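Table 4 source record.
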Amino acid sequence: MTVFTDETRTRAREIIARYPADRSRSALLPLLHLVQAEEGYVSPAGVAFCAEVLGLNKAQVGAVASFYTMYKRRPTGDWLVSVCTNTMCNVLGGQEVYDTLAEHLGVGHDETTADGKVTLEHAECLAACDYGPVMTVNYDFFDGVDPQTAVGVVDELRAGGRPTPSRGARLCTLKEMAVQLAGFADEREGAVADGRQAGTGHPGEGRTDRQHRTRRSGAGPQVAAGAYRRDPAEAAGAAANRPAGDGKPAGDDTGAQERNLREAESNGGGQGSAHDKGAQK
């Protein structure tokens, strides 16, 4: 059974302190990421640890850990490679990418290579249909992949490299990513600034990278404002599709409802409407 380090226990106390005393169970999600950061998955020991520090039972913790797919319930490699095989990516060749990787790595869905480095999985829609086929490595995107480029990425990972994703900062291992998801900064040198440069790759990618670096680096308001400025076409589209107001939906005739209520009260005097009285005879 894993004995969690003093650093993990200190961080657990920091996480719990973020929440009001009577809402401490809200700390469960980041705590699950924290134990995954130490073990590479949420083990029975990790479930017991979270239950212990939050005063929950293991069934309550296990129910949450088994609901969300980002919590792995068995040992997972340093690099979780997810290939979208849903409709759009499949039409564009996603299944071929997956099949090629499965044969090349010698593993199937949710299986890990013998060296413990790569776990392969089918993924449902990764929300990047216009860049398909897509795959992610620890949830960072590699867009427009084909079997050969996908094999090149996993071979580089197994050789100790960290290929640059199509957008976002440099890759980090599953454990390193779990530390960030638990709410702690990524302390690796160049972790934020060493991503793909703005304006490279697919159309629109530059804006995404610029926003990412603004949020992560704490840039001042002048930079942030420029990063999120809309172009005229985007602004016009937003103006034409304003969110619905808080008014009653169309067809909800409040006036008729109020009239019916008044008539029922006057006719029945609290004893039921005329229709009700007729039905009782």
